[in-house]
Amino acid sequence: MNADSKTTLEIVTRFHNAFERHRPEDLDDLIGEDCVLENTAPAPDGARYEGREACLDFWKGIASSANLVFEAEEIWAGEDRGIIRWQLRWSKSEADRIRGVNIMRVRDGKIVEGLGYVKG
User: Fold this and answer.
1) Angle at alpha carbon of residue 81, lines to 64 and 102, rounded to 5°
2) How far, rounded to the nearest angstrom, does the alpha carbon of residue 94 sit from its chain's CA centroid?
3) DSSP 40
4) What's phi and psi for 32, nearest 5 deg?
5) Band of the pLDDT at 2, cuts 50, 70, 90?
6) Contact 23/15 with Cβ under 8 angstroms?
7) What top-level branch of life does the organism fall under (predicted)?
8) 3-118 — its CATH code?
9) Residue ranges of domains in the chain
10) Quick one: pLDDT at residue 3?
11) Is the pTM above the cut of 0.85?
């Protein structure tokens, strides 16, 4: 693994941990000024957010939701791309969950792109 991949893996892992630990403040140092986010909903293309503040506000809202439980299934990085395969639960019922993936791009130690997808 080269240095870029290691940096990307570190940033993407820290990003995911903010959601698992419900620590939205941990996102502050991770999001770039020119960040673009494509959310998983609404279908078929998801909402698009542009700019650091818009992306940060959206992600912080999710990370601060105590009733949401994120679990990483896999976190992978190569060069400037990171992939997080995750599972999201919103109750203890087995039916109340969804699996998805975030494809992230990191530049200069900051997330500049986040594309979210879910299994339909």
Assistant:
1) 40
2) 23
3) S
4) -80, 160
5) confident
6) no
7) Bacteria
8) 3.10.450.50
9) 3-118
10) 84
11) yes
